Protein 1
Amino acid sequence: MIGLISATAAGAAARDRLAAAWPDRTRVYDGPVGDAVRSAFAECGQLVCFLATGAVVRLIAPLLGEKTADPGVVCVDEGGRFAVSLVGGHAGGANELAREVAELLAAQPVVTTATDAVGLPGLDTLGFPVEGAVAAVSRALLDGEPVALRADAAWPLPALPFAAEGAYTVKLTDRAAEPGEREVLLRPPSLVVGVGASKGAPADEVYALVEGALRDAGLSPRSVAELATVDAKAEEPGIVAAAARFGVPLVTYAAEELARVPVPHPSKAPLAAVGTPSVAEAAALLRGGELLVPKTKSDARPAMATCAVVRRPPRGRLAVVGLGPGARDLLTPRAGAELRRASVLVGLDQYVDQIRDLLRPGTRVLESGLGAEEERARTAVAEARAGHAVALIGSGDAGVYAMASPALAEASDDIDVIGVPGVTAALAAGAVLGAPLGHDHVSISLSDLHTPWEVIERRVRAAAEADLVVTFYNPRSRGRDWQLPKALSILAGHREPTTPVGVVRNASRPDESSRVTTLGGLDPAWVDMMTVVTVGNTATRNVAGRMVTPRGYRWQESASKEAE
Ligand code: SAH
C-alpha cells in the first residue's frame, strides 16, 4: 500500500490525482502531517509525501531503521514539478515509484542512487536476496574497480562489469557464510525443502526442523525457493505457517506423482496415511535436483514433522522481445527493461543495431545475418539452458512471422520464458493509414519460402470470400514478384476495383512513406520487403485520404437511416 500525505491545497490536488489513478494501491492519510507520516510509515510499504524534502527528512529521521525493511519514500514539491526518491531507492522501490509518480503527474523524477544514475543495476535489484557490503561493492563497480564474481553456478544475472580477480567480490551461493568486509552475497533460489507433517504438527516444530536441517548442512535459508509437500497437506497449518515464515510459496503434488519418485528412504507410515511411501524426499526431488539433506525428523517426541532439502540446477531466462516497427518511442518500456535485464542478446544484426545503445555494457551480443533463424533460435535456447539471462529480439512483435515460434519449439520446461509484445507492422501501418482494421482482419505472409504457394493462395481465397481486411507481410522482393499481383487478383474477384488499399513502407522509421490507393490502381512497383499492403473489405472507404473500415455494417445502416 502507498500512503499519501499532503498539507496544502495544491498538494491535496496532486494527491487526489494519484489516489484516483491508483485506487487499489493508495491510501490517503489526513490530519496533522506529523501523525499522518508516522502512521503511514508504520503501515505502508511506500509513501508519497506532497511536502518539502526538508520537512519529510525531519519527520522520518527518528523512524528510520534498516534500509532493507524501511518503506520507500517519495516527495513531490508544491509545484508538482519533481518526484524525489528520498529513501528506500532500491529495496523500498522509491526510485521506481518516483518514476511512476512523475509519469502520472507529468513531473521530473529525481533519482540520486549512484547505480541508477549511470545505468548499472543496483546489486539489491537483481532479484536475488543480498547480504553484506552492498554499498561498498556497488561503489567499487561504479568506480571501475575490479569486482570479481564467484558463482556456484550460472544464474541469470544481468550484464555487470565483473573482473576475473578483484579486491571486491560478489558471491552467488546458497552456502551459509558470513560476507567479508568487501563482499556481497547473492542468494540464488536454489533450495527446495520437502516437508511432511502429521495432522496438527505445530508451526514452530516444522520451522525449527527446516531451519536446523539447513544450518547443519551449511545452507542459507535465504536460498530457499519453496516448500513442497503432498496435496493432502496443502492446508496443514504448521506447514503453511512455516512457508510463510520463510517467505516462500508452498507447492503441493498429488500422492500418485510423489509415489513415482525414487527416494532413498521410503517408509510405510506415509503410504498408509496419504498414499505415497515418501512425502518430504519425493516432494523435494520431484522436479529434479540433488538431494543435499535426506529425510530428517524433528527432535520433538513424538516427532510430527520431516523434511528433506534438494538443490535444483539454475533456471535460465529467455525473454522474447518485440522491438516494435522501428521508432524508439514505439519500443515499449517493458521491452527496454528486458534488454537491460539480459546478459546475452540474440538477434538479426540489423535489429541489434537498432537497440545497441540500450544494452548494458558487457552484454554479450550474438548477432547473425538474414536466414539464420533456426540457428538463432537454437543459440538463444542453449544460452538460456546454460543459466543465462537471454533476450531474443525481433522487429515488430517477435511472435509474428518471427523468432518466438522457432525458439519455443526448441525450448523445454527447464527455462523461464518471458514474452514481451511489440507493435507489429500491421498495427503500425494501420495507424499511418487511418483506421483500416476497424473490423475483422487477417495478416497473410506472401513469402513462399517456408510455406507452399498453394497454401497461401487458399488462405487468400478464404479471406476474399469472408470479406476480411487483409494485411500482406513479406509482400514482394526482387526474386518474388508475381505473388502480390496474384493475391490482389484473387481479392479483386470479390471486391470492387475502387476498394481502398494502403501501402506503407518503413512504418515509423525515418524514411517512412505511405499512400492510399485502390485495388485497381495499385502499382506493385511501389512495394518491396520493407512494406506492408493493407486491402480494405467491401465496406472500407477512403475518407479524406484515410482508410476507414466501419466497425459494423448494422451500426452503419441504422446511422444512415437515422440521417435520412
Ligand atoms: N515480426 C515482424 C514481421 C516480420 S516479417 C512484425 O511483427 O512486424 C517481415 C515483414 O514485416 C516485412 O517484409 C514487411 O512486410 C513487414 N514489416 C516489418 N516492419 C515494417 C515496417 N516498419 N514498415 C512496413 N512493413 C514492415
Protein 2
Amino acid sequence: MKPPEEQTMSSVFPRDTRINLPKAIRAEGCYIYDETGKAYFDGSGGAAVSCLGHGDPDIISAIEKQAKTLAFAHTGFFTSEHSEKLARLLADYTPGELNRIYFVSGGSEAIEAALKLARQYHVENGQPERRHLISRKQSYHGNTLGALGAGGNEMRRAQFQPLLIDVHHIAPCYEYILRDEIETSHDYGQRAAQELEDEILRLGPETVMAFIAEPVVGATLGAVTAVGGYFQRIRDICDTYGVILILDEVMCGMGRTGYLFACEADQVVPDIVCIAKGLGAGYQPIGAMICSEFIYDAIKTGSGIFQHGHTYLGHPVATAASYAVVNKIINQNMVHCCNRLGVFLSDALHDSFGQHPYIGDIRGRGLFLGLEIVSDRATKKPFDPELQVARKLKMAAFEAGLICYPMAGTRGGLLGDHILLAPPFIMQDSQISEITYKLEKALKSVLPA
Ligand code: PLP
C-alpha cells in the first residue's frame, strides 16, 4: 500500500501531464457540468461525438437492457441480436453496394480494418503487388500506427516516423489556400484530383492498393469540404486504375454534415467507408468499417477469412446503444435537423465573424463548421505558432463555458490555427447565440485588439 499522500494523487495517465483538468460529473442535453457546478455548452460534441447530446433516456435504456440480457459474447463463437439489426439498418441506408459491416470499437480501429481489407482484397484477387497507399497531406485518420501512417499531419507523425508504414501523400482539396486566383473552383478541384492520377502513374498503377480521404476534413483542417467535381474525378481515377477508394467518415459521417453519409453530398460511393463517433454518440465506444459487396465476395469466394479481428468486435452493448442511436437519427429526422441548424449556425457565424479581422474563412457543411484564424485577412497569413493561438482559444472558450475544438497546424501541420464546431443535433435555435457570444468572448481575450 502506498503512503496516504500518494494515494490521494491521481494515477491516471492524462493526455497532457502539464495541466489539471476539472472533473466532469454529469451531463444533460447540450451541457456538461463539472464538480463546481459550472456548465459547459458542448459546442464540439467532444470531437464530433455527442450528436444526440447527453443523457438521452432511450439510449440509456437500450444499454441497460442489453447489459442485463447479454453483456458480451465473443464474435468468434456467436453473432448477436443488435449487431445483426444495426448492420441491417445501416445497410438499408448506405449508398451503392456498401452492404457489409464490420463493427469495431472506434475510428482508428475502423481505419486499420479498412487498410488491411484493401490489401487482402488485392491479394485474394491475384494482385499481391498492390501495396501502396495514397493519402492526403493535412489529413487525420487516427492514432494507431497504420492510421497514423495514413494521416498527413506532420506534427502528429514526426516523432513516430520511423515506425510508420510508407504512405504517399498528395495535397488536400483546400480551396481557401490552394486555389489560384485565376482558377474557377471546378478547375481547381480537377487540378487537385489530378495529383492522384499523377501519383498512381509515378508509383506504377499495378502497385497501388488504395486511396484514403476524409470527405470533409475535420480535426486537422477545420471542416474543409471539397469543391464540386473533385471527388467524382477521384472516383473515376480509382476506377480507371483498380485502386480501392476508402472514405474516412469517422468524424463527418452519421448525419453530421446534413447527410447520413457525408459522401452523398459529393455524389460518390466509395468502396469502403469508415464511421465511428456519431455512430455511438458517445454512449458506447463503437466504429464500423463498411465495404462494398464485391470486396466481401472476393474474401468469401477466396480464403473465406478476413485476417483481422479484435476481442471487442461487434460488442453487444455497444451495438445495442448504436442501434438506438441510429434509429433515433433516422426516425426523428435528425439529419434534416442538422442541415437546418447548420444553416442557422453558419449564418450566425458569418454575421458575428464574417468581418472579423482575424477570421479568414468560415466553412463546413451541416453542423460541422470551421473558422480559420489568420493574422491578416488580405494575405491569409497565419499567426506565429509561438503565440499558441489555438491552445489559448481552447482555454478561453472553456473558461467562458464553451467546449469547442481549436487546433493548430492548419497549414501543413506546423503553421495556422482553426476552430472546429460540431454541436449536438438536439441543440435549440436559441442556443446558437450562446455559441457565438462565448466564442466572441474567447476571441477577444486571446487575439490582439
Ligand atoms: N478518422 C478521423 C477523420 C478522425 O477525426 C478520427 C478521430 O478524431 C479518427 C479517424 C480516429 O478515431 P478514434 O479517435 O475513435 O480512434
Protein 3
Amino acid sequence: MAKPEKKLQDLKTRLLEVGDLNHINALLGWDQTTYMPPGGAEARGRQSALMARMAQEKFIDKKIGKLLDDLRSYEESLPYDSDDASLIRVSRREYERALKVPPEFIGELSEHGAMSYQAWAEARPANDFSRVRANLEKTLELSRKLADFFGDYEHIADPLIDFADYGMKASTVRALFADLRDQLVPIVRSITSQPPVDDSALHKRYPEAEQLSFGAEVVKQLGYDFSRGRIDKTHHPFMTKFSLGDVRITTRVKENYLGDCLFSNMHEAGHAMYEQGIDMSYEGMPLGGGTSAGVHESQSRLWENIVGRSRGFWEYMYPKLQAHFPEQLNSVSLDEFYPAINKVEKSLIRTEADEVTYNLHVMLRFDFEVQLLEGSLSIRDLPEAWHERFEHDFGIVPPDDKDGVLQDVHWYAGVIGGSFQGYTLGNILSAQFYNAALKVHPEIPDEMNQGKFSTLHGWLRENIYRHGSKFTAPEIIERASGSALTIEPYINYLKTKYGALYAL
Ligand code: ZN
C-alpha cells in the first residue's frame, strides 16, 4: 500500500487539474464581460459550459473519492489546522457536495448563465424586462432543481445559501436581518428627515481617463498588487482570479459621477487583496480561495467603507484627488467632500447606496429570492413586486425596471438563491474584523492619515487572508475576532460615524 504522502500527492495532482479547468473557465468569463464582441456569445456559452462540465466530471471521479477515503486515517493523525488535514477535509466536503449534482446539470446551468447574461446586458440599457423574463424563469427552474439535488432541507433556499455562506440557512439569515433591521430603520428615519447633504461636487464632469488613473493609484496605495493583477472596464464591476498570481478587478466609469469608479475600485480591490493574500502553497487547491461570500464581502466593504469613506483616509488622499481634478475640486474643501461621500439618502441603486441604507437593498433581494424559490412570488409579478416593496421600504417608486429589477447582474448570470445575504453579512463582519484589528493595533487610524495601510493589511493577511478556505466562516470569525458573528460592532460603527455627520 502506498504511503499517505504519495496518495496526498496524487490527490493534489488531480485537484490541480480541476482547479486549472475552473480557472480557465474564469478567464473565458472575464473575457466575455470585458472585451468579447456580442457575436461571440453563443459559442462562448457552449465553451464555458464544456469547461464547467469537464471540471465537474474530473472532480467527482471515483479515484478522488477513493483517495479521500484512503487518506482519512492520515488526516486524523494530524492537527485540525495543519495544511494537509485541512486540504483533505475541505476537499472531502466539496467532493461530497459535488457528487450530488450531475455534470450535465452543471453544464446546462453554465450555458444558460452565459446566454442569460448576454440578454441582460442588452435588456438593462433598453429598460426591457420582457427580454429576460423567459431566461429568468428558466434560471428559477434550474435554481430549484439545484436545491432539490440536496433534498432534506428545512427551506428550499437553504442549500443555495449554504453554497455561498456555509452553515447558514434561510431561518438564521432571516432572524439576523430582523435584528439588524430593527436597529437600522430608526437611524435611516432620523437621518433622512434632516436636510440633504450637498454632494454636487461629486456630480461635476470627471473625464474617464483621469478617473481610471486616480482609481488605479488609490488601490495601489491600499495594497492591491499590480504585478499580480490588473484593472479593466465592464458593465458590473467584479473581481476574478486565474491563479494566486493573477487576481483581476474590473471597473466602470460615469463621467458625471466621481463615486462609481472610485468606490467600486476600492471594493473590488478589497476582494482581490484577500485572494492575493492567500498562502501560495494553496495554489489551485480547494483551499486556495476565500472562505465564504460573507467573509469575502467583509473585506471589500472594509476597504471600501471603513477605510475608503473615512475622514482619516481622505486627509491623506484628498490633496491627491484635487491634483487630478483641480478645476472640479480646488474650490471644494475636505469639510465639504467628506460629508458628500457619506451622504445618506434613500436611493435606487444598491451598489451606489450609502452604508446606512445599503442593507435595506439587500434585505429586499434576499426576501424576493426566498419567495421566488418557495413559489409565493412569480417571475411575471417580480417587477411589480419590486416597485411595491421598494416604495414601502424607501418611500420612492423606481421610475423603471432598469434601475429596479434589472439593476443587479446576479440573477441573470447565476442562480436565484444565496446571491445577496453575503453582502449584509459582509457589512456586519467588516466592523467586527476592523475592531479586532484595532484592539491589537490602536495605531491604525493614525497611520491611515499618513497613507500607511500596511499594519491593517498585515493583520488581515495574518488572521484572515492567508488561510484561504482552510477554516469555515464561523471558525475564522471566532479565531480572528474572539467571538461569533455579532451585529454590535457594526451598529456602534454606524452610530458613531453618522452621529458625527448627522444629528441622531
Ligand atoms: Zn463585493
Protein 4
Amino acid sequence: MNAVASTLDISALRDQFPILATEINGHPLTYLDSAATTQKPDAVIDAISDYYRHDNANVHRAAHTLADRATSAFEGARKKVAAFVGSENEKQLVWTRGTTEAINLVAYAWGGRVLQEGDQILVSTLEHHSNIVPWQLVAARCGAEVVPIRITDAGEIDLEELRRLLKGPARMVAVGHVSNALGTVNPVREIAKLAHEAGALVLFDGAQATAHQVVDVRELGCDFYAFSGHKMYGPTGIGALWGREELLAEMPPWQGGGEMIDEVSFDGSTFQQIPYRFEAGTPDIAGAVGLGAAVDFLNGLDRDAIAAHENDILQYAIERGDDFDGLTRYGCASQVSGAFSFVLNGLPSADVGMLLDQQGIALRTGHHCTQPLMSRFEISGTVRASFALYNTREEVDRLFTGLAKVRTMLS
Ligand code: PLP
C-alpha cells in the first residue's frame, strides 16, 4: 500500500463498504466501476434504513410528529448538500433524480424561456449524452443550435476554439467538470471566465467531480452545477442542481403537480418560491437523507488525503498501462481524475470486460454514453477502470494480471 494510503487506513475505510467483501465468480470483487456508480458505506445504508424504520412520512404537508421529523430530515439534508458544494444558502439547491434531470431542468426551464432562433449552446465533444441530448431537445423547439467545442488529441477542451465560438451567438456553455470517459479535468474556472466575458452562462456537469475533489460553486464561478448522489457514495435516484439564486428565481416551473404550487384554481395556478417550484410531487425523501449521510461521510474524511490517494492509484494504473504491450490509453490530459480508459490490442471492449468479469474484476466497457467522443477518436468504445477512495494498488495489479490473461486468451 502507498504512503498516502497508509496514513488514511484504506483497509479500515474498505471495511465500511460491506459489498467490497463480496466474491464474484469465485474471486474477491475488484470493483473498478465507480464512475458508473460508487459503492455505499454503512453510514449511508443505515441512514436510509433508519429513516424508513423510524421517521418515514410525507414531507411538508401533514401536521403530525412523524411528518415533522421527515421534513426536518429532508430539509436538513438539503442544507448539508448545499453547504457541501459551497452554496450560500439551501434555496439554491434543487433536488433532482441526478445529473441528467438537473441538466434537463436547466435546459427546459432556463432554455425554454431564454433561447431563441439562432442562439447557440456550446457543449464540448467530451460530454456525456446527458449534457448533449437535453440541449438538442430544447434547441429543436426554439430554433437554437447545439455546437460542439473541439477537443485536442490529449482529450482536452480546445480553449482557442472556445474563444472563437464565443464570438458568435452563444447563450450557454455546458461542459463537464471531469470527463467520465477519459478522466480529463477541465479548466472550469477559465471556461466560466471566458463564457461570462462573452455574455454567456455556464453550466458544469459535476457528476464525476464531487466524490473526488472539494467543489465550491462560487469559487468555480459557474451559474449552474449538476451532480448525482450515487456517484459520491450516496443512493441512486437523488441528485441536485445548484443554481445562482437570481437565475433560478426567474425560471418558470418545468414540471407541474403537488408541492410546487402556491394556489391552484381553474383560472390558473401560482407557484412556490425556489427551490420548491422545481420539485413537483413527492420527492425521494429517503434518497435525500441518504445523500446527506454520504456528505457527512465525506466531510468526516481528510479530503486532500483522499484525493492524493486516488491520484496515486490512477497514476499507478497509467504507469502500468504504459508498460503493458498492446494497451492504448485514451485521454492524456495534463490533469486527470478517476478514470483510466484504454483499448487492448484493438479487441472489442465488451469481450475484454466479460473475461475480466470472470476474474471478479468489474469495470465498464463501451462508449460510456459519450458517442461523439468515441467518434472523435474513431473507436467504438474503450475499457474503463475507474477509481474511488476504497481502491488499492493491489487491485490495479489484479487488473493487469487479468489483462495479461485476457491478452493470452484472445490472441
Ligand atoms: N454526466 C457525467 C459526466 C456522467 O458520468 C454521468 C453518469 O455516468 C451523468 C452525467 C449522468 O448521471 P446520472 O445518470 O446520475 O443522471
